[in-house]
Amino acid sequence: MVPYGYHLDAAMLARFLKRKATEAGVEHIEDTVTDVTVSDGNITAVTGVKASYSADVFIDSTGFRSLLISKLKADNWQSFSDALPCNKAVAIQRALPQGHSPNPYTVATALSNGWVWQIDLTSRQGTGYVYDGNRLSKEQAEQELRDYLGWHSDVIKCIHLDMNVGCRKEFWVGNCIAVGLAGGFIEPLESTGLHLINLGARLLGTHLMQPHPTQAVKDAYNKAMNGFYQDLKQFIVLHYCLSNRTDTEFWREAPAKAQLCEGLPEKLELWKHKICEYHDLAGGYATTFVDENYRYILYGMQHYPALQYHSAETDKEVFARLQQLSDKAVEMTLPHVEFLQKIAAVR
After folding, report:
1. Helix (H, G, I), strand (E, B) or coil at 89
2. Phi and psi at residue 15, to the nearest 5°
3. How many helices and strands (H and E) does the chain possess?
4. Which CATH architecture has domain 88-162?
């Protein structure tokens, strides 16, 4: 696969992964957790409606409810709500608007107290308003989203979501590891949820190599996961704190959020006078969003460094060559709609 973002139907992807897992020998059991038995700081059994399940290691993937990890340690959550106040969302699925071809990108648009996503599939469009629930009621947010989408929308369904923005202080406690929403959540401005699940699973592949891992191994896992979340928190805050909107209190307060990310104010001051480069972020926990991504946000928001630089003739030649390569790539590439149609035909 080409290494860029894909728009996937989440329900279809889940079914695909389930099929692949069961084909590889994983036993898939659907049950509802009713009780968790703990002894000496470890989970000994998880009881469901159908049966009781014992294991050496438990992975908590029960979402925001965190039914397993919450039984092992109290006061094990650090909230990011001060820096990222958007804690609710209203999502609307609608048919693709008439005459609209699926976009090969996500559209994110700022509204009064948050932002709206629009993600196109071949069959429908997913939209949602991520907003500050301390400033808007659910009814107000839904109305603002519907007004934005327009009266002509063919709505398939509408749901409201509560979001707990932050992460565990310890993701691995005893014999339980929290992955996904049970471990933490960064609001979906950069769609980091699946990325964080992938990071957690890959780290388990290198840390869970013994029947009884030492505390040092657990501490290393917890340190890395906390670093990943703090890094992503900073990158998302960057989107807000560079805004020059002043039409609502939400946006007027946004620039001050940089102060809630250690080191970010210093970086922003530095990047007023020099180009944002790899070494400015090296040594941290950046796993996806590096200097290139930071430049997209900085320069897209018109935050350019004040440089004394005079363009030479060779620069013009380089840019002209890049434009030629870009034009050639467009000539050789299928339009997005045709590409999707060919994929569907192969299936």
Report:
1. strand
2. -65, -40
3. 10, 14
4. 2-Layer Sandwich (3.30)
